[in-house]
Amino acid sequence: MQSTNRTDAKISRLKTGILDLSERFEHNPYFIATHRSLALSLPLIMLGAIALLLRHPPFPAFGFLKSPHFTSFCDALIDCSFGIAALVVLIGFSITLTNLQPWRPGQLRANSALTTMVVVSCFFVIVAPDGDAGFLEVLSLRDNILTALATSALASWLLFRLSQFRALRLPVGAFGHDPLIGDVFLLMPAAMATIVIFCIAKMLLMISIAPGLEALFASFLVSIPAMANDQLIYSLLYEFSAQVLWFFGLHGPNILSPVHEVVFDQAADANALAARAETMPPYILTAQFFDFFTRMGGSGSTLCLILALVIAGKTATSRKFAFIALIPALFNVNEPLMYGIPLVLNPLYVIPLITTPLVQAFVAYNAIDLHLVPRITEYATWTTPVFASGYLITGSIAGSLLQVVGLVIGTLIYVPFVRLSEQVGMLRNVKLLETLNNQVESQHAQFAGAHLLEMHGAEGRLATTLARDLDEAVKSSNQLFLEYQPQINVRNREVSGTEALLRWEHPSLGRIAPPLIIALAEESGYLDELGFFILREACTKRAEWSHWLAEDCTLAVNVSPRQLSNPDFCEKALHIIRESGLTPKQVELEITETSALLPDKRAVLTLHELRIAGVRIALDDFGMGHTSIHYLKELPLDTIKIDRSLTNVALNKANELIVKSILELGESMSISVMVEGIEEEEQLERFMSLGCTVFQGYLFSKPMPAVAFPSFAQSLYMEDAKQSESAPA
Ligand code: C2E
Ligand code: MG
Ligand code: MG
């Protein structure tokens, strides 16, 4: 028991360690730029993956696809997608990284176009071939993705550092009317110095070691065939090298092609000969062994990852992505997952990416060695789907069964990492949500609007995604709904009203705070639609409750000042109220004071029109803003709701005095006063002693689902009836 506890503690410590580490990575701008630049190239990768599949049809029946015209069509598609992916990565990286650079006064502001130019130039310094030959090759995904990423990171880092040296700034003033020209001239020496440093580095590399980064890798790995044999350890070593290369974005099997030529091709030929002579094939390891038993869905056995995403993925996005990536993966094309999740350079997936194929190699080797599965004697194109391929290369159903076992084991290895990765993503989103909420609540937002969609970086992206999701939620599903919080009149112990509060249960982020929903709707232009949805929904419910509630029990609905600027608001709102069967005086619209309201003559006029029609108007969160008294003068008010920040009168004498004067003011202007945010009995007693009678707060009830409201109201009436029955006449 004790040892189980100790193991649990160790696992949870390990998990926290991985989470901390990955969080540190997640905040590193170079890491963010790597992931975003790979993700940016995803449309090209998908196109390239499909073209590649058509170029290498899995079954002979699709031989008609091999016509010369169709082949060159596919080649053109591959060239313009995979073929230039390195360039896309360079550009994406430079722009993302530049935009993530913090700017401090006194420093030069980084310019993304300029960084891109320097980075592209440095890339060509490193990879440009001699003469024209192979010019396009250097831009390809297969050959130069790692060089592209490494160059982008190094060159932009160097440029940012050099540009901070005063000695490297040209003494120029403003150039004409365009500040960009001034920027370019200021950064010119640093940009030129960066490119020159890359040239020197390339020369040194050429002189001292070997030409090009990947050539360095290849020359090291070619030494592996020297140890070639047919042992289990060799299969593990080969697979390990191929997977490590993949982790760095390099096409492992292609780089290790010398191993194929020297070892595996000969083994395959010998096996085929033996099969024809009906003798025992001498080798276990051939290229097809790895293609079909350890790379199901492509390197990293990404088919297992797809299954793990479908089984364990909690977010709709990851499941949707898994289904999109499934089609190419069925034909062993894994680029969408490699660059889309991404698996490349992702510390969260490095363990399963490497261990899954190793475990599968171990199982497959032993299954063949123990004669549970026949040795490989036949050839199948690498795009042949799983199960069919297992059968084709071994000539036995046992080959397909071995693939089933490999898939199950691989999926089990991937599942915990899918969970971990989602957990990390969730933590990141929770933090981003917090930032967005703070932005909405900030003083700046009160005055100038939150401008969520214009925010830079991950926050801005989350805001845009949420705005898109909100659009869908408003139009269709049941993610948006209302809760109701009772307002209690303590004098007659009755529910004097109920406030409708908006709720959004986001499918992956959970509850989103209402002010953020409203701010997003406001910025994206569908506040009107959302506002009328809320009013209609609330009025319909209040009308349904008519026989449970007293006729004068009001329905309070929050309205944002922006909604009131709509010239049709009054007419439409009255139409909704009447259509639901309520009378205007049963509805109270709550307006929060913001700077947007008072200067807007149209909004104030709308309030007057509504009031004339009988709708009640309440001023919400009174006492929070700077212009509260001004509001009392300008707006036609029935109710003032004292803000929660003032309810803790016990803590602060000033609060008590403010509340007293609000009460006096309300009485003299015939405006009723309600106190919000009452949580404790002691608060209630103090306010009652100050003369307040209507309250809203957790002490009475938290906001509750619509179905719970009638029974709450009824229980209060019944309690009241019991008390009056037992009271002495
Ligand atoms: P509000 O209109 O002042 O609503 C009262 C808020 O205080 C609600 O938060 C409620 O759950 C919370 N509250 C009530 N009693 C207590 C208490 O005793 N203690 C504490 N700590 N909190 C209490 P909620 O639902 O998160 O709404 C926040 C704000 O979002 C609302 O403040 C309102 O300004 C806005 N909002 C909510 N629904 C809507 C809507 O349908 N339309 C518009 N335009 N704004 C809305
Ligand atoms: Mg309110
Ligand atoms: Mg309030």
What do these coordinates show?
The chain crosses the membrane at residues 38-56, 76-98, 110-129, 180-198, 204-224, 292-312, 321-341, 347-368, 389-417. Residues 463-717 form the EAL domain. The protein is α/β, with parallel strands linked by helices and 729 residues long. It folds into three domains: 2-208, no CATH class; 222-426, no CATH class; 459-724, TIM Barrel (Alpha-Beta Barrel). 60% of the residues lie in helices and 8% in strands. It is built from 30 helices and ten strands. The chain has helices at residues 2-26, 29-40, 42-55, 68-80, 85-100, 112-127, 141-163, 179-208, 213-221, 232-247, 252-255, 257-276, 287-293, 302-312, 316-330, 335-340, 350-369, 388-394, 397-441, 443-448, 457-475, 514-524, 527-544, 561-564, 569-579, 601-612, 628-634, 653-668, 681-690, 709-726; strands at residues 480-489, 494-506, 510-512, 554-559, 587-592, 616-622, 639-642, 672-675, 694-695, 704-705. Strands 1-2-4-5-6-7-8-9 form an eight-stranded mixed barrel, surrounded by five helices. The protein binds ligand C2E and magnesium ion (2 copies).
